């Protein structure tokens, strides 16, 4: 039995769809806070169980019988992320889960200025101490976020950032497909594995690519961090979210998203979606 949390979201939902192309629905269970949102899976014969990262006892029941558990990281913006992950890992241990696969992130590390990277690192430590076999899927930074991380360059002709560095922008759809392949593999992958696109362009590189795919002049600039924050807030963005995103640029400048790995390409049997592909898809006439 493969049990999946977060299947009502884009990442693990796509992974579930890929699994159902290869497995009978009776071999798959999804766990969600709101079972009504998983109706499309229930209609296919998938077992749907209620589970909440803030309810350890409920999770234990939801995870029962799982040979493999695909555990999505919490997206609760106000919750205790590390505590929620602790609840999930402890419940998996108590339920006798065979293996946990956790959706982590490239650049996971306690010293990262990007807060989720700290949470991922802490969760990987929990997994290592759990006594269960585990795999951490360190996905590259999701490529769809290029659309807002590069700003309104089509209107301004400028990619304006507070810091620059290489990022292995990786399509969420590719990461989801790779997760399904890993779950179905005859031999498990142990510990952290890195799933990235083949290149890691800087924001300066993205500006050049934007110019090439749009046919219009586009340049990049690095502005003072405080000025960048002030501009974003003045433009109506929530300051807390702006400062959260600032940590991503700072981590990129430290090289925390720079590495690339051929594993994703090997699992897919094709070249992963590139940052150029994403930018080309955003160009408007």
3D structure, described in words:
The protein has a domain at about 1-140 and about 170-195: Rossmann fold, CATH 3.40.50. By secondary structure, it is α/β, with parallel strands linked by helices. The strands form two sheets. It has a seven-stranded parallel beta sheet, with helices on both faces. It is globular. The chain is built from 13 helices and nine strands. Helix 1 crosses helix 8 (about 170-185) and helix 10 (about 225-235) runs antiparallel to helix 11 (about 240-255).
Unreliable stretches, pLDDT < 50, 5 or more residues?
none
What is the number of strand segments?
9
Element string (H = helix, E = strand): EHEHEHEHEHEHHEHEHEHHHH
Termini Cα gap:
48 Å
Q: What is the typical, i.e. mean, pLDDT? A: 95
Helices, by number, come to: 13
CATH structural fold name of the domain at 2-139 and 171-195: Rossmann fold
Q: What strand order characterises the main sheet? A: 3-2-1-4-5-6-8
Report the CATH architecture of the domain at 2-139 and 171-195.
3-Layer(aba) Sandwich
**Secondary-structure-derived class:** alpha/beta
Strand fraction equals 15-25%
In this structure, how is the largest beta sheet organized? 7 strands, parallel
Secondary structure: helix percent: 40-55%
Shape: globular
């Amino acid at each position: 039995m493969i049990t999946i949390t977060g299947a009502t979201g884009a990442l693990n939902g796509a992974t579930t769809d890929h699994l159902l192309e290869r497995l009978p629905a009776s071999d798959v269970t999804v766990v969600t806070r709101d079972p009504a949102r998983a109706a499309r899976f229930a209609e296919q014969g998938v077992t749907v169980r209620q589970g909440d990262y803030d309810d350890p006892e409920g999770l234990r029941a939801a995870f029962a019988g799982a040979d493999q558990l695909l555990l999505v990281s919490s997206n609760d913006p106000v919750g205790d992320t590390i505590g929620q992950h602790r609840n999930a890992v402890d419940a998996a241990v108590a339920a006798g889960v065979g293996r946990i696969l956790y959706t982590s992130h490239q650049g996971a590390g306690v010293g990262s200025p990007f807060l989720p990277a700290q949470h991922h690192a802490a969760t990987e430590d929990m997994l290592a101490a759990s006594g269960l076999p585990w795999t951490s899927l360190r996905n590259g930074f999701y490529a769809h976020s290029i659309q807002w991380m590069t700003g309104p360059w089509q209107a301004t002709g400028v990619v304006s950032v507070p810091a620059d560095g290489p990022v292995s922008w990786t399509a969420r759809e590719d990461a989801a497909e790779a997760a399904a392949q890993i779950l179905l593999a005859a031999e498990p992958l142990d510990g952290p594995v890195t799933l990235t696109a083949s290149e890691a362009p800087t924001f300066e590189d993205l500006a050049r690519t934007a110019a090439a795919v749009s046919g219009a002049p586009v340049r990049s600039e690095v502005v003072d961090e405080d000025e960048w924050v002030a501009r974003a807030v003045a433009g109506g963005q929530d300051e807390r979210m702006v400062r959260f995103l600032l940590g991503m640029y700072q981590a990129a400048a430290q090289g925390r998203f720079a590495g690339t790995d051929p594993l994703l390409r090997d699992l897919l049997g094709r070249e992963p979606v590139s940052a150029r592909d994403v930018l080309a898809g955003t160009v408007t006439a």
